[in-house]
Amino acid sequence: MNKIPVLEIFGPTIQGEGMVIGQKTMFVRTAGCDYSCSWCDSSFTWDGTAKADIRQMSANEIWEELKAIGGEGFSFVTISGGNPALLKNIDSLVDILQQNHIKIGLETQGSLWQDWFNKIDELTISPKPPSSGMTTDFNVLDTILSKLELNERKQNNSLKIVVFDDEDYEYAKTVHARYPAVPFFLQVGNDDSKTSDDGQLLNRLLHRYEQLINKVMLDDSLNDVKVLPQLHTFIWGNKRAV
Ligand SMILES: C[S@@+](CC[C@H](N)C(=O)[O-])C[C@H]1O[C@@H](n2cnc3c(N)ncnc32)[C@H](O)[C@@H]1O
Ligand SMILES: Nc1nc2[nH]cc(C(=O)O)c2c(=O)[nH]1
Ligand code: SF4
Ligand SMILES: [Mg+2]
């Protein structure tokens, strides 16, 4: 079957995270994940609660829907999930987007490789810290990062670690020390990703952002790093598909 399981197609919005934060983009969110992070803000992609909303779509159908929703108002598409790296046939979607001169971002956790990673313009790998309950297979991560390094295309890669607590922070330092040449982002963890009280959430996240900044500023082992919030949560809270 040549279809891609899709849960959401939305935008244009801004990329709220990481290496191209602020970028105007459409999103394609695939269903299914090989992880089950304790704090996943998109758990509906894998926990069965949105099973009825999954659509099996061809790459062409996804492209048509992107145009139907986004009109002429986009030149960038971000593929996220779930873990899009579970899906070999995203290759066909990547090809269609490139034929139409659309730049492509990818969000994935670094547990699986696909050859189509080589065609992604802005590739974010987000290994998971201890608080997620997941364990990083550093052999796999090494392989993925060395494949990207060998890639001749001039693409941009980055590592982005979400931090919830001190143990996560130490984990982030380990990852940065292992791959010092890869652009490195720290992201504030949202520990209340179900609340609909946007005001309270904003206060909480701003406070946590300040704490993370303060910590990094005093830390000589994290110098060439960028510390970011999830900008979209500041604006839209925990709302879905924004
Ligand atoms: C929902 S995931 C989907 C892509 C891929 N599975 C991954 O984890 O990289 C997209 C991004 O959201 C981050 N994320 C998920 N839950 C979060 C939370 N509660 N707070 C902050 N970031 C979160 C992930 O770490 C990842 O960088
Ligand atoms: N605006 C916005 N930015 C994002 N960056 C990463 C997202 C994701 O869920 O992968 C995301 C998202 O869902 N919305
Ligand atoms: S890897 Fe990403 S989508 Fe999968 S459970 Fe973790 S945060 Fe959620
Ligand atoms: Mg998200």
Automatic annotation (TrEMBL):
Class of enzymatic activity (EC top level): lyase
Positions annotated to bind Mg(2+): S42
Transmembrane regions: none
Residues involved in substrate binding: I14, Q15, G16, R29, S80
Domain Radical SAM core: 20-238
Annotated Pfam families: Radical_SAM
Residues bound to [4Fe-4S] cluster: C33, C37, C40
Enzyme Commission numbers on file: 4.3.99.3
Residue numbers binding S-adenosyl-L-methionine: W39, C40, D41, G82, S126, P127, K128
Reactions catalysed: 6-carboxy-5,6,7,8-tetrahydropterin + H(+) = 7-carboxy-7-carbaguanine + NH4(+)
Pathway connected to this protein: Purine metabolism; 7-cyano-7-deazaguanine biosynthesis
Cofactor list: Mg(2+); S-adenosyl-L-methionine; [4Fe-4S] cluster
Cofactor binding note from Swiss-Prot or TrEMBL: Binds 1 S-adenosyl-L-methionine per subunit. Binds 1 [4Fe-4S] cluster. The cluster is coordinated with 3 cysteines and an exchangeable S-adenosyl-L-methionine.
PROSITE patterns: RADICAL_SAM
One GO MF term attached to the UniProt entry: lyase activity
Keyword terms of this UniProt record: 4Fe-4S, Iron, Iron-sulfur, Lyase, Magnesium, Metal-binding, Queuosine biosynthesis, S-adenosyl-L-methionine
InterPro entries: 7-CO-7-deazaguanine_synth-like, Aldolase_TIM, Deazaguanine_synth, rSAM, rSAM_sf
Quaternary structure note: Homodimer.
Function: Catalyzes the complex heterocyclic radical-mediated conversion of 6-carboxy-5,6,7,8-tetrahydropterin (CPH4) to 7-carboxy-7-deazaguanine (CDG), a step common to the biosynthetic pathways of all 7-deazapurine-containing compounds.
Family under the similarity heading: Belongs to the radical SAM superfamily. 7-carboxy-7-deazaguanine synthase family.
The protein, known as: 7-carboxy-7-deazaguanine synthase
Encoding gene per record: queE
